[in-house]
Design goal:
The chain is an alpha/beta fold and 201 residues long. The protein is built from nine helices and seven strands; from the N terminus they run βαβαβαβαββαααβαα. The strands form two sheets. The chain has a five-stranded mixed beta sheet with strand order 3-2-1-4-7, with helices on both faces. The chain is globular.
Length: 201
């Protein structure tokens, strides 16, 4: 990896009534082998008598914590985008986990590319509540190189999971943010806009 390429990565965790898994998600973000990160937790108007907030605040100044009225996942992600300090955005859902080298491996790959405004994505695993692996999705094994090089094809084939992406912050500034009127497909709508405008690798 190019040691001179060490950008700040903002890991944004939107959460609503997520005290059951939030601690593990935050811990997996903080335990990244790549250390130039900030972890932002956005409480999207949780109604669990403060339990989600208690979990988040237990991490003290290791994270940046924000709370807002409930507006949906897209709204919480936009809040994270608006307050992030990093050059790159990485989304982590409160009930998902990052492997320890998630960010490092993506920064390492990005460092080899000429265009640093490339979106980097990776495979992912589905696991049970007990972290027993159920299924693995590796894009390069599920489709051919031609499809992978077509920036929209991974989205159309369901090979993209938002939490695997590493996205240049400037794309949000130049193209836009998550559409808060979409309660369930705000991520795919934005990926279509992004992937038509920038390289994907």
């Amino acid at each position: 990896m190019n040691k001179n390429f060490n950008p700040l990565v903002s890991i944004v965790i939107p959460v609503y009534n997520g005290s059951n898994y939030l601690r593990e998600a935050i811990t997996s973000a903080l335990n990244q082998s790549y250390k130039n990160i900030e972890v932002i937790v956005v409480n999207d108007g949780s109604t669990d008598e403060g339990l989600t907030e208690q979990v988040a605040k237990s991490f003290g100044d290791k994270i940046r914590y924000f709370s807002q009225e409930n507006g949906g996942c897209g709204s919480a992600l936009n809040c994270g985008v608006n307050v992030m300090k990093g050059e790159y955005f990485s989304w982590l859902s409160h009930d998902d986990l990052y492997t320890p080298n998630k960010v490092e491996s993506q920064i390492k790959h990005l460092s080899t590319l000429v265009d640093k405004n490339t979106i980097v994505y990776s495979g992912f695993e589905l696991v049970t509540d007990q972290l027993v692996k159920k299924e693995t999705f590796l894009p390069h094994e599920l489709t051919n190189a031609k499809n992978l090089n077509n920036s929209l094809m991974p989205v159309l084939q369901g090979l993209i999971h938002g939490c695997t992406l590493l996205i240049p912050k400037k794309l949000f500034d130049e193209i836009g943010q998550f559409d808060v009127t979409r309660r369930t497909t705000q991520d795919y709508a934005l990926w279509f806009d992004f992937f038509r405008s920038t390289p994907v690798s």
